[in-house]
Amino acid sequence: MTLSAIQPIRSDQDPAERNSRPGHSRATAPLRTRSQKTKYALTVLAFLLPSAIPLALFTLGPMIGAAWISLTKWNLLAPQQFIGLDNYSKLLTDPRTGEIFLHTVYYIAGYLPLVYVGGLALALALNTALKGRSFLRGVYFLPVITSWIVVALVWRWLLNPSSGAVNSVLGWFGIEGPGWWTDPNWAMPSIILASAWKDLGFVMVILLAGLQSISPDLYDAAKVDGAGWWRRTFSVTIPLLSPSTFFVLIISLINGFQVFDQVYAMTSGGPAGASQVVVQQIYDLTFRYGKAGEASALSWLLFIVVLAVTVIQIRGQKRWVNYG
To answer: How does 258-289 read in b/e, with b if 16+ C-beta sit within 10 Å?
Structure first.
């Protein structure tokens, strides 16, 4: 045995240096590591509990309850009667189910391009050295925090076929205004206009944050290369704005499939069911027709569709979203 192996350990010696000495036992190291992992897990759990408990009570709990109700026949008053997958079978073979999903897709197809292009235009305008831009940002964001019922009722008045402001303005130019929410062909466009107007501010804020994260050096380099405004927009701005665009698409699609408030306040799904969407149908099945089982089954079908669309978007983002 060498002298170095039997040297005394000094009290002021570094613990790491002690552990590196020959013959030192490391049997306690795994125990210390497990202890640290347990402490870390408990710390994370402590921070998650304030959010996890409401999530479990008000989201996961109702979802599990709806899954059970979807397997029963129930009118909210009489005892539940278990019928298995009959509700799902009935919905999937009912042509009306396809119609209301098509109405919802129609809403999304009109709403999404309108709200994105409008929000992008506002974001680009307010990203410049414009006087009063802080005030304008607040003005455009105000509808976002306004109650949907209030917004829907205002737009119902604006689009009134006989006395609405929109048709009055069109009349000054010699244009006969449509029937808007009273016309089956114009009921859904009426809802799309109101929805896009309300959500423009939200999309504007998200895209504006994305614009401000783009380095000005990239625009300067593009100018040196002779790129004009349009070229800089489509070659620099749009590609680097793709993460914000992806977020807007995800949120807007989920909200689009769940559209309800404006439909309920403006048309109640009419006229003649022309604007009936999935969530409105879930509401009607439950509270108007006493078919809570069918309504729960329809809500789960909607959940599956939204989940599938979201998964497709997340997997497809690698092809066009630029995080660099």
So the answer is: ebebbbbbbbebebebbbbbbbbbbbbbbeee
Which one, of 188, 179, 185, lies nearest residue 159 by Cα?
Answer: 179
Backbone φ and ψ of 126, nearest 5°: -85, 0
Report yes or no: 187 and 180 within 8 Å, Cβ to Cβ: yes
Q: Please name the residue that has the structure tokens 């929000």.
A: 119
Strand partners, 81: 73
Query: Which tokens hold the place of 121?
Result: 């235009």
* Pairing state between β 72-73 and 81-82: antiparallel
Please, what are the domains in the chain? 23-69 (no CATH), 87-319 (1.10.3720.10)
Q: Are 67 and 300 in contact (CB under 8 A)?
A: yes
- Helices 95-126 and 242-257 sit at what angle, rounded to 10 degrees? 140
Q: For 64-91, b where at least 16 C-beta lie within 10 A, e where not — what string?
A: eebeebbbbbbeeeeeeeeeeebbbeeb
Tokens representing residue 70 in the block: 């979807």
Give the pair of three-digit tokens for residue 41: 């897990």
One digit per residue, pLDDT tens: the chain, 324 residues?
A: 443 444 444 444 544 444 444 444 444 445 468 888 888 888 988 898 888 888 888 888 899 999 999 999 999 999 999 999 999 999 999 999 999 999 999 999 999 999 999 999 999 999 887 788 888 888 999 999 999 889 998 999 999 998 899 999 999 998 888 999 999 999 999 999 999 999 999 999 999 999 999 988 988 898 998 889 899 989 899 999 999 999 999 999 999 999 999 999 999 998 989 999 999 999 999 999 999 999 999 999 999 999 999 999 999 988 888 876
pTM of whole model > 0.85?
no
